[in-house]
Amino acid sequence: MTLNETSSPDGTTPSTTVLPDVVDPSQVATGGAVLLLDTATQEVVDANRVAARLAGDLGIPSSFGSWCTAAGIVPAFGTARSTSEAILAALREGRGIAVRSTRRGGDAISWAVGLPLVGAPDRLADRALLVLLPLAGLGEPSEPDSSPGSLQMRAAVASHLSFTISDPSLPDDPLVWVNPAFCEVTGYSADEVLGRNCRFLQGPGTDPGAVARIRTAIEAGEAVGETLLNHRKDGTPFWNQVVVSPVHDEEGRVTHHVGIQADVTERVHAERRHVLELDEVNRENQRLSLLASITQALVDLFDEDSGAALLPELVAPHFGTWCAVVVTDGTGEPRLVHGAARDPERAADIAVLERSHRWVLESPSVLHVLSTHHSQVPAPFPVEVASLEDRTTPEELAALERLGLGTALVVPLRGRDRHTGVLVVVSEDEDAFSRDDLHDIVALGARAGLALDNARLYHREHQAALTLQRSMLPEIVAAPGLDCAALYDPASDGTDVGGDWYDVVPLPTGRVAVTVGDVVGHDVRAAASMGQLRSVIRTEAWSGRSPAEVVAGMDDLVRSLGMADIATCVFALVDPPDAHGTRRITYTRSGHLAPLLLRVDGSVELLDGALTTPIGAPIIGEEVPQAEALLHPGDVLVLFTDGLVERRDRPLRAQLANLATCAGEIEQGMDAAGVRDAIVEVCADGRREDDTCVLVVRNIPSGEPTD
Predict the structure, then answer these.
(1) What is the pTM of this model?
(2) Residue 544, helix vs strand vs coil
């Protein structure tokens, strides 16, 4: 078992201080130097590879003082004694001493801990174990916790780590010496463990992978560190941080294995609790993120039916095996069913269920939720397969069984004042929904119900506003000698209504007034203002006034009566034809885009004169300008609002130039409706971001039949 596993048994916390409180566990296996000293001669007789690397080319045996000099070991704090004398004095007194290695830059502090091998076999009886342990959490001496007193206290603790020595020259590498701390931690006496391999500490929960890694390193003569689950004599488990280091003689042979053990149960449990807490936080964040993403996807839709179709697709990958959404109409009657399965290959079965609704609309649990207006906490229930036979065809029942019938959950989709439908989540497992799942699905039902209700209300209000706007747009009145066609098209996203309008008014004088305009704004107020302005223009035009006078009069009314904020328009009067069938156009542009004049020879002209300020804005200059143009037989006048060409990702000037180029390529001889459709098709290169009005006026050549 490893640290990442969460099923380890709880062990009692020992009194021994755990290793991470004293030494750096990430460096013990590779950074701990182990020496065997001859206490009589003060010579280094054995060393592990870390200690040998520290001393460089120094041979063994060698004096301990020579080894300290070669390894660059000096006391971490000032002392009158030499390094070797200070360390040996600490060894004799049973304490540790803080040292630095100048070969490693002198920054890292290590503890030199000496342990006489009291009670060891004859060949080790005059030996002492010296271990240099890299410390955790200690830096420069100026730090408060690295004062000599604090370090001395940690040295005393370090001296109580469990130490063992085993002899690989004996069968099964048995223990030949253990210190009292080992007996205290494990509960075994020295007599019970000496002569045995230390695997007796292993138990059912010990990770065989960790054991194998230790065995492999020992066989390779390398130091190794692992944390594994061991058991005391009384059977209680504890997490043991083990470091095993081989000690070599002067010929490079492994003479002993020195083991350092520390009970880190409390640390492991603390880490496990921390991991569990982080997992819980992550799960909660993931749940909230999922709910937010599903809700946002529904909020982004302005159509209830689209939202109802999307909801099962959003839910199915995360909850249950498959799900369905039932949407009710304004009277509460079910009218729509959509479904989705976690397995995409079950789409055909979902399609079967979407064609016939009895299986769900006659479900007692669904009918109960739809008829219950007060809030109830839904609960999962087992699906009664037998009851499905009465309300399904054999094909539907087979589809249901393939999808999976185990446990179901029916959650209301609640709007502001009533249920807008239900969400049915089904799992093929009998015990499938956890408490978190139930909480999330209920919350999702509440959010989805409100989102669908918002879409329903928006659709209702939008349709009312759109109907109002369309009702204010006129039917094209037949004008003698002119072929007229118009189009009003809302923006592609359908989110708002606007103030675009067009009009064709035959006048008593024989002239024909034509206009296209746009009130700033996208709401019911803009649509209502559009209706008022169109009525004013009609009245002004009927009086026989010129385009400049019509625009000036309309501007006065708008600014005086506050009929609208700002509006743009093109107003033109088309005269009766002369003897050659040519008509004069007199026009004024109030901040509006220039109309196109498509000639029968394929050329295109812009009527870009007579530009004045938008209606409702102060007029620049003393008079409103007006300009003239000629409309020859077969010529076509095209008036339009900016929604036809305006795109956020392209310059307006480039769009207008492209429109003029494409308009010149339109097939000659088409009627007004054909030209209108061709113009719209030319500009249908993406989603329109604004409402669009197009008015096409064609001067019918004499002799051409008219409807």
Answers:
(1) 0.45
(2) coil
